[in-house]
Amino acid sequence: MVGLVKTEIENCDGMNAETASLRGGMDLRHLRYFQAVAEELSFSGAARRLRIAQPALSRAVQELEEACGVRLLDRNRRVVKLTPAGAVMLREAGLLFERWEESLRRVQRTAAGEEGELRLGYIGPPTRGFLASVVKEYRRRWPRVTVVLEERTPERVAEMVARGRLSAGITRPVLAHSALRLPSLLLREEPFCAVVPEGHEWCGRKTVGWKELAGVPLVLLARREGAGSHDAILAACREAGVTPRLLHTPSLMDTILRYVAAGEGVGVVPDSTLGAGRGEGLELVPLRPRVTVPLVMVWQPEGDEPPVRAFRELMEEWLAAGRMAGPWEEG
Q1: Is the Cβ–Cβ distance between 132 and 149 less than 8 Å?
Q2: Which residues contact 140 (CB under 8 A, 6 or more apart)?
Q3: Percent of the chain scored above 70 by pLDDT?
Q4: Residue 150 and residue 136: Cα distance in Å, rounded?
């Protein structure tokens, strides 16, 4: 279409398809008036259709032709005909109005959280009991929102949310949590357990005391990847009078399980790790006294976009209904 109608809309906040400004000093009203005349092939008929005075209609069409630099209509007292350029303008104007109206609908859906993109970072084991179900419900309610899932370590989730590379995250409190100033929603407090291989002397026990970790080679998540979890474990050991013997500190929870399965020490993990250990010759034994680590949802303090707000409200709804408990909490 001619340069006049390149959808270069200015100051569209609060405007509709009759008042938004186009390049060249024209606005969509000029196109709407021309469209009516071109479809009716009558200025009087178009004026009645639009419920405006015929002189104002004639003046608007003339201004549009002057802006285009071409004649769009051949008219005399008896007939109005489209020129070849006018036929192109009519077709392009129709497409423009369709696109403009769809754009308005998309803007309104986005503002309502019904359209857009949700990039959700998460950490694996703690979310296995609920994340799939939450995302499925979110997609059911807001099918036009694209959901992108990214599994990362706790530190990476927080960092990517702070930098805007993720819309929100489900993670642990991390070393930089306070500095990043990310708002958070507490999802649950997870108690720590000892994870041991099949045949270990602790298998079958209901609980193990923190004092019993004295002298035991331990496998913990590296502090750089989970400061909240790591520090809570060390603090619990100190409280029990135990100096922990750290054999391995890997970056991934799954690696802790691999070490334990290979007989390389006892792991200390949150109880949500149960799902990852099933069927692998591993067993979780609750540690006492009970010490927990939080699981939180985080998002940016500014830029609380509608898809993020809608997801947070869904999480709050599930929390209120007690639906955030995973299978590891049954019984």
Answers
A1: no
A2: none
A3: 84
A4: 16
For 160-206, the pLDDT digits (tens) are 999 889 999 999 887 665 667 889 999 999 999 999 999 999 999 99
Closest Cα partner for 75 from 50, 53, 105, 43? Answer: 43
3-state secondary structure of 171: strand
Please provide residue 155's backbone torsions phi and psi, each rounded to the nearest 5 degrees.
Answer: -60, -45
Which neighbouring-strand residues pair with 73? 82
Asked if residues 161 and 300 have their Cβ atoms less than 8 Å apart, the reply is: yes
Query: Is 175:183 a contact under the CB 8 Å cutoff?
Result: no
Say which residue, 128 or 268, is predicted with more confidence. Answer: 268
CA distance 226 to 95: 54
How far apart CA 230 and CA 257 sit, in angstroms, is 16
pLDDT over 70 at 292, yes or no: yes
Query: Would you state the structure tokens that stand for residue 219, as one six-digit string?
Result: 């496998």
Specify whether the backbone of 248 is left (phi greater than 0), alpha (psi in -120 to 50) or beta. Answer: beta
Domains of the chain: 3-111 (1.10.10.10), 119-187+295-326 (3.40.190.10), 188-293 (3.40.190.290)
Q: Please identify which residue in the block is written with the tokens 């405006």.
A: 52
> Over the chain, what is the mean pLDDT?
84
The per-residue pLDDT for 102 is: 72
